[in-house]
Amino acid sequence: MKKFTAMGCLSALLLVAACASSGNESIKNETSTTVDQKIQDGVTTKDQVKAVYGDPLETSFTDSGHEIWKYVFARTRANGTNFIPYYGAFSSGYHGKAKTLIIIFNNNTVWHHTLSDSDVKTHTGIGG
Asked: How many Cβ atoms sit within 10 Å of the Cβ of residue 96?
C-alpha cells in the first residue's frame, strides 16, 4: 500500500512540475472578442492600452514610423517522454499554446491590432 501512495505522490509532483507559463498574464484569458471590446482602432490611446495590459514585452517600429507593441503569453507542458528514464535524456520537449497581441500605433492612437492563438512545440536531444 505504501508503494502505491508513494507512486501517487510522485505522479502528482511530476504533473505539477511539468507545467510552465511565461509572458504577460494580462492577455492570458483574452480572446479576439474581449480584446476588440477593450481596444478600438482609431480611438484607443497608448495610455489606455498600458492601463489595461501593462508594459509590452517588446516594442519596435515599422518602416513608416508606426510604433508596434507586442504582448505574449505562453503556457506549456512537458512531453510525457521527458520522464522516461534514459530516453528523456536523449529526447525531450514541451507543447502548449501561445497568445500574441500586436498593437500598431499611429502617433498616440491605435491604428491596428490583432490577437493570435497558436500551438507551440519544442524538442531537444539527439533525435533533432
From this structure: 16
Q: How is residue 47 written as a grid cell?
A: 495610455
pLDDT tens digits, one per residue of 98-121: 999 999 999 999 999 999 998 877
Query: How many C-beta atoms lie closer than 10 Å to residue 23's C-beta?
Result: 16
Gyration radius from the chain CA atoms: 20
Residue type, 15: L
Distance between CA atoms of residues 40 and 62, nearest Å: 20
Q: What single letter denotes the amino acid at residue 104?
A: I
Q: pLDDT, tens digit, for every residue of 2-11? A: 554 545 444 4
Chain mean position to CA 48: 22
Query: What is the C-alpha separation between 47 and 59, in angstroms, rounded?
Result: 15
How far is the C-alpha of 115 from the C-alpha of 39, rounded, in Å?
11
Under a CB-based contact definition with an 8 Å cutoff, are residues 82 and 28 in contact? Answer: no
CB atoms within 10 A of CB 27: 21
